[in-house]
Q: What sequence folds into this?
């Protein structure tokens, strides 16, 4: 699978610095999801994760991130998600940009 095939169809998205949003995306382009959703968001160019509120979840093939909050205007963040499908770990990513409200 090519790197571009691992990017969420919903990417990129924007979020205001005062917003608190849990994002949902469809895992069917990767064959769906069975269990163990994990989500990490990192400031572009760093390995330090952003503090999230709550945990990632699955509802059928819909993956929902924890609540994303406290972003800084002008920064770009990489959203990295993984889950289990047919005993395999699947990973996908997307980009989130913090914009002024």
A:
């Amino acid at each position: 699978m090519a790197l571009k095939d691992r990017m969420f169809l919903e990417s990129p998205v924007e979020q205001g610095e005062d917003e608190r949003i849990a994002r949902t995306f469809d895992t069917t382009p990767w064959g769906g999801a069975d269990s163990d959703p994990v989500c990490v968001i990192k400031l572009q160019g760093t390995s330090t994760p952003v503090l999230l509120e709550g945990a990632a979840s699955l509802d059928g093939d819909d993956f929902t991130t924890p609540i994303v909050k406290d972003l800084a205007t002008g920064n770009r963040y990489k959203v990295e998600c993984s889950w289990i499908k047919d005993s395999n770990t699947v990973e996908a990513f997307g980009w989130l940009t913090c914009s002024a409200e």
